[in-house]
Amino acid sequence: MCLTVRSTTDRSPIVRRGNCRDRWASKECTSASSRAALGGPGLQERRTPSLLAGLTYGFTVKSLTDTEDVVTAVTDSVKNMSGYIVMMFVAAQVIALFNWSNLGVLLAVKAAALFDSVGVTGFWAILAFVLLASCLNLFVVSGSALWSLVGPVFIPAFMLMGMSPALSQAAFRIGDSATGAITPMNPYLFLFLAMLRQYEPEARLGTLISRLAIFVVPFLVVWLAILGIFYGFDLPLGPGAHIGLK
Questions:
Q1: Mapping DSSP to helix (H, G, I), strand (E, B) and coil, where does residue 10 land?
Q2: Cα distance between residue 126 and residue 244, in whole Å
Q3: 77-94: per-residue pLDDT in tens?
Q4: Would you call 235 helix, strand, or coil by DSSP?
Q5: Cα distances (angstroms) measured from residue 188 to each of 16, 135, 137, 193
Q6: Among 7, 135, 181, 234, which is most buried by a count of CB atoms within 10 Å?
Q7: How far is it, in rounded angstroms, from Cα 206 to Cα 213?
Q8: This prediction's pTM
Q9: 187, pLDDT greater than 80
Q10: Cβ pair 236, 244 in contact under 8 A
Q11: Which letter does DSSP use for residue 5 in this model?
Protein backbone atom coordinates (compact mmCIF):
# COMPACT_ATOMS: atom_id res chain seq x y z
CA MET A 1 0.00 0.00 0.00
CA CYS A 2 1.19 3.54 -0.70
CA LEU A 3 -0.08 7.05 -0.09
CA THR A 4 -0.81 9.05 -3.22
CA VAL A 5 -1.63 12.73 -3.60
CA ARG A 6 -3.51 14.25 -6.52
CA SER A 7 -4.57 17.84 -7.07
CA THR A 8 -8.02 18.78 -8.30
CA THR A 9 -8.98 21.77 -10.43
CA ASP A 10 -9.21 24.00 -7.35
CA ARG A 11 -5.64 22.97 -6.43
CA SER A 12 -6.75 21.40 -3.16
CA PRO A 13 -4.89 18.13 -2.62
CA ILE A 14 -6.77 14.88 -2.37
CA VAL A 15 -5.06 12.19 -0.34
CA ARG A 16 -6.13 8.62 -0.87
CA ARG A 17 -4.70 5.21 -0.29
CA GLY A 18 -4.15 2.63 -2.99
CA ASN A 19 -1.71 0.10 -4.31
CA CYS A 20 1.10 0.72 -6.76
CA ARG A 21 -1.12 -0.04 -9.73
CA ASP A 22 -3.15 3.12 -9.23
CA ARG A 23 -3.00 5.61 -12.08
CA TRP A 24 -1.65 8.35 -9.83
CA ALA A 25 0.94 6.13 -8.12
CA SER A 26 3.61 7.95 -6.18
CA LYS A 27 7.27 8.00 -7.12
CA GLU A 28 8.13 5.79 -4.16
CA CYS A 29 5.68 3.10 -5.24
CA THR A 30 6.92 3.20 -8.81
CA SER A 31 10.54 2.89 -7.71
CA ALA A 32 9.72 0.00 -5.41
CA SER A 33 7.88 -1.81 -8.18
CA SER A 34 10.78 -1.26 -10.58
CA ARG A 35 13.29 -2.63 -8.10
CA ALA A 36 11.11 -5.66 -7.48
CA ALA A 37 10.72 -6.30 -11.18
CA LEU A 38 14.42 -5.95 -11.96
CA GLY A 39 15.89 -7.71 -8.98
CA GLY A 40 13.21 -10.07 -7.74
CA PRO A 41 14.08 -13.60 -6.64
CA GLY A 42 12.34 -15.18 -9.62
CA LEU A 43 14.44 -13.24 -12.10
CA GLN A 44 17.63 -13.98 -10.18
CA GLU A 45 16.87 -17.69 -10.17
CA ARG A 46 16.49 -17.68 -13.95
CA ARG A 47 19.37 -15.34 -14.74
CA THR A 48 22.14 -17.02 -12.70
CA PRO A 49 21.86 -20.54 -14.23
CA SER A 50 21.79 -19.04 -17.74
CA LEU A 51 24.93 -17.02 -17.04
CA LEU A 52 26.75 -20.02 -15.58
CA ALA A 53 25.73 -22.23 -18.50
CA GLY A 54 26.96 -19.66 -21.03
CA LEU A 55 30.29 -19.17 -19.26
CA THR A 56 30.83 -22.92 -18.90
CA TYR A 57 30.15 -23.52 -22.58
CA GLY A 58 32.32 -20.59 -23.69
CA PHE A 59 35.36 -21.62 -21.70
CA THR A 60 34.90 -25.28 -22.66
CA VAL A 61 34.91 -24.66 -26.41
CA LYS A 62 37.64 -21.98 -26.01
CA SER A 63 35.50 -19.18 -27.45
CA LEU A 64 36.10 -17.42 -24.11
CA THR A 65 39.62 -17.35 -22.71
CA ASP A 66 39.62 -14.51 -20.19
CA THR A 67 37.43 -11.82 -18.65
CA GLU A 68 37.94 -9.48 -21.60
CA ASP A 69 36.28 -12.02 -23.89
CA VAL A 70 33.33 -12.20 -21.50
CA VAL A 71 32.94 -8.42 -21.51
CA THR A 72 33.18 -8.35 -25.31
CA ALA A 73 30.54 -11.07 -25.66
CA VAL A 74 28.15 -9.28 -23.28
CA THR A 75 28.73 -5.98 -25.12
CA ASP A 76 27.94 -7.56 -28.48
CA SER A 77 24.74 -9.05 -27.06
CA VAL A 78 23.61 -5.65 -25.80
CA LYS A 79 24.40 -4.10 -29.20
CA ASN A 80 22.16 -6.65 -30.88
CA MET A 81 19.34 -5.77 -28.47
CA SER A 82 19.77 -2.00 -28.68
CA GLY A 83 17.26 -1.54 -31.48
CA TYR A 84 14.68 -3.63 -29.62
CA ILE A 85 15.27 -1.69 -26.39
CA VAL A 86 14.73 1.65 -28.12
CA MET A 87 11.61 0.34 -29.85
CA MET A 88 10.19 -1.00 -26.57
CA PHE A 89 10.84 2.37 -24.93
CA VAL A 90 8.71 4.12 -27.56
CA ALA A 91 6.04 1.43 -27.34
CA ALA A 92 5.96 1.78 -23.54
CA GLN A 93 5.39 5.53 -23.84
CA VAL A 94 2.49 4.94 -26.24
CA ILE A 95 0.91 2.39 -23.90
CA ALA A 96 1.36 4.70 -20.90
CA LEU A 97 -0.23 7.56 -22.85
CA PHE A 98 -3.17 5.34 -23.77
CA ASN A 99 -3.66 4.34 -20.13
CA TRP A 100 -3.28 7.88 -18.79
CA SER A 101 -5.58 9.56 -21.31
CA ASN A 102 -8.09 6.70 -21.79
CA LEU A 103 -7.50 7.22 -25.50
CA GLY A 104 -7.44 3.46 -26.06
CA VAL A 105 -10.93 3.07 -24.59
CA LEU A 106 -12.23 6.01 -26.64
CA LEU A 107 -10.78 4.64 -29.89
CA ALA A 108 -12.10 1.16 -29.07
CA VAL A 109 -15.63 2.44 -28.61
CA LYS A 110 -15.39 4.53 -31.78
CA ALA A 111 -13.98 1.59 -33.74
CA ALA A 112 -16.74 -0.73 -32.54
CA ALA A 113 -19.37 1.88 -33.42
CA LEU A 114 -17.80 2.39 -36.85
CA PHE A 115 -17.80 -1.34 -37.59
CA ASP A 116 -21.43 -1.58 -36.50
CA SER A 117 -22.53 1.48 -38.51
CA VAL A 118 -21.09 0.13 -41.78
CA GLY A 119 -22.35 -3.37 -41.08
CA VAL A 120 -18.90 -4.88 -40.55
CA THR A 121 -19.35 -7.25 -37.63
CA GLY A 122 -18.47 -10.80 -36.80
CA PHE A 123 -15.92 -12.48 -39.03
CA TRP A 124 -15.94 -9.54 -41.47
CA ALA A 125 -14.54 -7.33 -38.71
CA ILE A 126 -11.83 -9.93 -38.09
CA LEU A 127 -11.04 -9.93 -41.81
CA ALA A 128 -10.73 -6.14 -41.83
CA PHE A 129 -8.41 -6.30 -38.82
CA VAL A 130 -6.20 -8.92 -40.53
CA LEU A 131 -5.85 -6.74 -43.63
CA LEU A 132 -5.06 -3.68 -41.50
CA ALA A 133 -2.39 -5.59 -39.56
CA SER A 134 -0.89 -6.80 -42.86
CA CYS A 135 -0.59 -3.23 -44.15
CA LEU A 136 0.82 -1.84 -40.90
CA ASN A 137 3.33 -4.68 -40.78
CA LEU A 138 4.99 -3.24 -43.88
CA PHE A 139 6.10 -0.25 -41.79
CA VAL A 140 6.32 -1.66 -38.24
CA VAL A 141 8.20 -4.94 -38.54
CA SER A 142 8.33 -5.94 -34.89
CA GLY A 143 5.26 -7.94 -33.98
CA SER A 144 5.45 -6.96 -30.32
CA ALA A 145 5.71 -3.25 -31.15
CA LEU A 146 2.83 -3.41 -33.62
CA TRP A 147 0.69 -5.36 -31.17
CA SER A 148 1.39 -2.79 -28.46
CA LEU A 149 -0.05 -0.15 -30.80
CA VAL A 150 -3.16 -1.92 -32.13
CA GLY A 151 -3.91 -4.22 -29.21
CA PRO A 152 -5.15 -1.57 -26.76
CA VAL A 153 -7.61 -0.37 -29.41
CA PHE A 154 -8.92 -3.50 -31.10
CA ILE A 155 -9.07 -5.91 -28.15
CA PRO A 156 -11.72 -3.84 -26.30
CA ALA A 157 -13.38 -2.98 -29.63
CA PHE A 158 -13.86 -6.66 -30.46
CA MET A 159 -14.88 -7.39 -26.87
CA LEU A 160 -17.69 -4.87 -27.31
CA MET A 161 -18.77 -6.98 -30.28
CA GLY A 162 -18.66 -10.16 -28.18
CA MET A 163 -15.34 -11.56 -29.41
CA SER A 164 -12.60 -12.75 -27.09
CA PRO A 165 -9.06 -11.33 -26.86
CA ALA A 166 -7.74 -14.72 -27.99
CA LEU A 167 -9.54 -14.30 -31.31
CA SER A 168 -8.06 -10.81 -31.70
CA GLN A 169 -4.59 -12.21 -31.06
CA ALA A 170 -5.08 -15.02 -33.60
CA ALA A 171 -6.26 -12.55 -36.24
CA PHE A 172 -3.33 -10.27 -35.55
CA ARG A 173 -0.82 -13.09 -35.91
CA ILE A 174 -2.24 -13.94 -39.34
CA GLY A 175 -1.90 -10.39 -40.60
CA ASP A 176 1.51 -9.94 -39.00
CA SER A 177 2.97 -13.10 -40.54
CA ALA A 178 1.68 -12.62 -44.09
CA THR A 179 3.63 -9.54 -45.15
CA GLY A 180 6.68 -9.77 -42.89
CA ALA A 181 8.72 -11.43 -45.62
CA ILE A 182 8.29 -8.68 -48.22
CA THR A 183 8.84 -5.47 -46.28
CA PRO A 184 12.25 -3.78 -46.76
CA MET A 185 12.04 -2.80 -43.09
CA ASN A 186 12.69 -6.44 -42.14
CA PRO A 187 16.40 -6.78 -41.25
CA TYR A 188 16.34 -10.51 -41.96
CA LEU A 189 15.48 -9.76 -45.56
CA PHE A 190 19.03 -8.51 -46.12
CA LEU A 191 20.38 -11.66 -44.51
CA PHE A 192 18.37 -13.71 -46.99
CA LEU A 193 19.66 -11.50 -49.80
CA ALA A 194 23.27 -12.14 -48.76
CA MET A 195 22.64 -15.88 -48.83
CA LEU A 196 20.90 -15.62 -52.20
CA ARG A 197 23.85 -13.75 -53.68
CA GLN A 198 26.08 -16.71 -52.93
CA TYR A 199 24.22 -18.53 -55.70
CA GLU A 200 23.02 -15.54 -57.76
CA PRO A 201 25.53 -12.68 -57.50
CA GLU A 202 23.34 -10.43 -59.66
CA ALA A 203 20.32 -10.76 -57.35
CA ARG A 204 18.94 -7.54 -55.86
CA LEU A 205 16.49 -6.71 -53.10
CA GLY A 206 13.66 -6.38 -55.62
CA THR A 207 14.47 -9.85 -56.93
CA LEU A 208 14.08 -11.36 -53.48
CA ILE A 209 10.88 -9.44 -52.68
CA SER A 210 9.27 -10.41 -56.00
CA ARG A 211 9.95 -14.07 -55.31
CA LEU A 212 8.57 -13.89 -51.78
CA ALA A 213 5.52 -11.80 -52.71
CA ILE A 214 3.79 -14.78 -54.33
CA PHE A 215 3.39 -16.37 -50.88
CA VAL A 216 1.52 -13.44 -49.28
CA VAL A 217 -1.94 -14.09 -50.73
CA PRO A 218 -1.81 -17.91 -50.25
CA PHE A 219 -0.76 -17.39 -46.63
CA LEU A 220 -3.66 -15.02 -46.02
CA VAL A 221 -6.20 -17.25 -47.76
CA VAL A 222 -5.14 -20.47 -46.03
CA TRP A 223 -4.84 -19.00 -42.53
CA LEU A 224 -8.09 -17.06 -42.85
CA ALA A 225 -9.82 -20.25 -44.00
CA ILE A 226 -8.49 -22.09 -40.94
CA LEU A 227 -9.56 -19.27 -38.65
CA GLY A 228 -12.95 -19.19 -40.38
CA ILE A 229 -13.46 -22.87 -39.56
CA PHE A 230 -12.69 -22.24 -35.90
CA TYR A 231 -15.00 -19.21 -35.93
CA GLY A 232 -17.85 -20.89 -37.79
CA PHE A 233 -17.90 -24.00 -35.60
CA ASP A 234 -17.10 -22.07 -32.40
CA LEU A 235 -14.03 -24.20 -31.74
CA PRO A 236 -11.69 -23.16 -28.93
CA LEU A 237 -8.41 -21.67 -30.09
CA GLY A 238 -6.62 -23.23 -27.14
CA PRO A 239 -7.15 -24.24 -23.51
CA GLY A 240 -9.63 -21.73 -22.14
CA ALA A 241 -9.36 -19.58 -25.30
CA HIS A 242 -12.84 -19.38 -26.80
CA ILE A 243 -14.05 -17.51 -29.86
CA GLY A 244 -16.60 -15.47 -27.95
CA LEU A 245 -16.65 -14.08 -24.46
CA LYS A 246 -17.67 -16.70 -21.92
A1: coil
A2: 12
A3: 777 677 667 767 776 787
A4: coil
A5: 51, 19, 14, 9
A6: 181
A7: 10
A8: 0.60
A9: no
A10: no
A11: E
